[in-house]
Amino acid sequence: MRKLRNNELGRITVDEFKQARKTPIIVILDNIRSLNNVGSVFRTSDAFLIEKIYLCGITATPPHKEIHKTALGATDSVDWEYAEDGLTLIKELQKQGVVVASIEQAEQSTMLDDFIPDVKKKIAVVFGNEVKGVEQEIVSASDICLEIPQKGTKHSLNISVSCGVVLWDLLNKMS
Fold it and tell me: Residue 80 belongs to a domain with what CATH number?
């Protein structure tokens, strides 16, 4: 077995990415402190042809060298927009028929492995601050809370890891 070189992977160009049919998933990063996490989410969103990323509150925006360090150019391919207030954004998305899912441990949350998305609807997944998680007002306004099942002693995952798990799961269920 031989490891493939980058030029053998058959990846699309940025222009082809822009023209490609996207996965009907929107990522919302609300008050993310780590620029490395932001960059990692861009890179993961590129890998799964995610429609758009919204950067809200204190979340830093490109161009920034710390975001670029982990995004590796994905800020050029994935559409993104800054929104000052996450709650206002999710209410607007809901008016457009988008299902909003906070990724959070909450009363009556649905375990990610039990969730079956409506493939006819676009979904926006909200990831919150590394310490405080998704703000309660956003959790309360969400259509659903999805929780990643965990078996160990720690009560949370890094936000970029959570994003990878959730996007991979949704991509498989929506394909």
Answer: 3.40.1280.10
Pick from 95, 43, 38, 87: nearest CA to 62:
38
Separation CA 147–CA 153 (nearest Å)? 16
Query: Residue with structure tokens 């078996």?
Result: 151
Each residue's pLDDT tens digit, 62-89: 999 999 999 999 999 999 999 999 999 9
Per the structure, the count of domains in the chain is 1
Q: Is the dihedral of CA 82, 85, 90, 92 positive or negative?
A: negative
| Encoded amino acid at 171, one letter | L
Residue range of the domain that includes 143: 20-174
CB of 126 within 8 A of CB of 138? yes
Report the distance separating Cα 168 and Cα 57, nearest Å.
Answer: 26
- Split at pLDDT 50, 70, 90, the class of 175 is confident
DSSP label at residue 18: H
In a domain, 4, yes or no: no
- Annotate 45-103 with DSSP letters as a single string: HHHTTEEEEEEETT---SS-HHHHHHHTTHHHHS-EEEES-HHHHHHHHHHTT-EEEEE
